[in-house]
Every structure is written in C-alpha cells, then in structure tokens.
Amino acid sequence: MDIKILIADDHSIAREGLKALLEKEKNMVVVAEAKNGREAVRLAIEAKPDIIIMDINMPELNGIEATRQIIAETPQAKVIALSMYSDRRYISRMLKVGVAAYLLKNNASEELVTAIRAVLKNQGYLSHKVANVVIKDYSNRLGQCDESPLSRLTSREIEVLQLIAEGFSSGDIADRLCVSVKTISSNRRQLMDKLKTDSIAELTKISIREGLISLDD
Can you tell me the distance from the alpha carbon of 15 to that of 59, in angstroms, rounded to the nearest whole number? Predict the structure, then answer.
C-alpha cells in the first residue's frame, strides 16, 4: 500500500525538490501540496495523507498552528516538521503541538525517508543537531526543577549513601573508598543532616525511592 504524503511549504522549489526525492521511493506518493498553513489544514482533511511534511514559517497560518489544527482534525496523520531553524523555541513549540519528527532542511535528502518510515512505526525522529538541542534543554530544565533529595548531596555522599543502603558497615565502606572510618562517619552525619533523618532504615528507603538500589538486586 502506498504511503500518502502532503507537502506544506511556501516555496515551490522546495516542494518540487521534496516531491522528487520522495517519489523515488516505490511506495511513496505525494497526494497534495500546500503553499501556506491554511491550505495545508484543508488539504490534510480532504486528502487524508499518512504523512504531512510541514514547514514552520508559512504565510496566512504558520506551521505550528497548522500542525495543531491538523492533529485535532486528523489525529491519524503523522506530521514531520522540516525547517531551517534549530532554535530551541521552534523545536519545543512544534514538539508540544504533537509533531512526530523534526528535521533540518539541509539534512532532508539524507534523513527524510528514514524519518517517514520511523514515524509510521510510531517512533519519533530528530535530526542529530535537533536532538542535541532537545537534550540540552531537557537537562537544563531538570537542573532547575530537580526536587530529588539527592540533588542536595555531593557525588561522594551519594556513593556512601548507596553503600550504606546496601548494608555495608563504616569499616567496609572506608576500605572500598580508601578513606578512614572517621571520614565515613563524617559523611554519614552529613547525609543524615542533609536528608533530615537519623535512621539507617530511612536512608535505605530514600535510596530505594530514588533508584540508587533496587529491592530486586
């Protein structure tokens, strides 16, 4: 069965290039082309494509809002953002409205067919540069809103906490970390102060809850 594709881009040369690229594939057929976002919404409803390749900056209705409307009207369609922009704002807004993939135009010839086949299997797809932006943004957000009690601990304190939760004595921990028992005792006190507990059992519960150790181990 053919994969039906709608191309939405306000540049005719871009649409022609994408169509030529896609129709080299035996089972891919471009069923409609839109030169603005409003037309893309209408054609998506009429043509019922499997895949919609969506530019972001288009006249009358931008690709972000067009995608929002298309997914609301034809939720079975998979929208692939194809843009020249790798800016975090564009990427996050397109991902938020529900695109299945985000590619950069300068990588289209290498990645577009692969992305189409991936999203048809319900897999997401991001260009390498886009993925780096997403990972960096996600890491920054985690750093801003990390409410884990472990975020208050140093790397060494987390190491000691895990060993305590695994049942090692202060002497055993000192041997493993090549420090004195006095140092481990100090680490233990700091852990209890920071985690607001005076119980080894509670330290163990925190370790399990935060994924440092598993009951299955």
Answer: 15
The H or E element spanning position 35 is none
Are the folds of 3-142 and 149-209 the same? no
Contacts of 140 (CB under 8 A, 6+ apart): none
- Give kind and range of the element (H or E) at residue 205: helix 200-209
Inter-residue contact 32 to 43 (CB < 8 Å)? yes
- Do 7 and 19 contact (CB within 8 A), yes or no? yes
Neighbours of 27 (CB within 10 A): 8
Residues composing the chain: 217
DSSP-based three-state secondary structure for 187: helix
- Alpha carbon 155 to its chain centroid, in Å, reads 26
Could you say which of 1.10.10.10, 1.20.910.10, 3.40.50.720, 1.10.1740.10 is the CATH number of the domain covering 149-209? 1.10.10.10
Residue whose entry in the numeric block shows the structure tokens 């299997």: 121
Query: Taking every pair of C-alpha atoms in the chain, what is the biggest distance, in angstroms?
Result: 75
pLDDT in tens, 91-140: 888 999 999 999 999 888 889 999 999 999 999 999 988 988 888 877 77
Does the predicted model carry a pTM greater than 0.90?
A: no
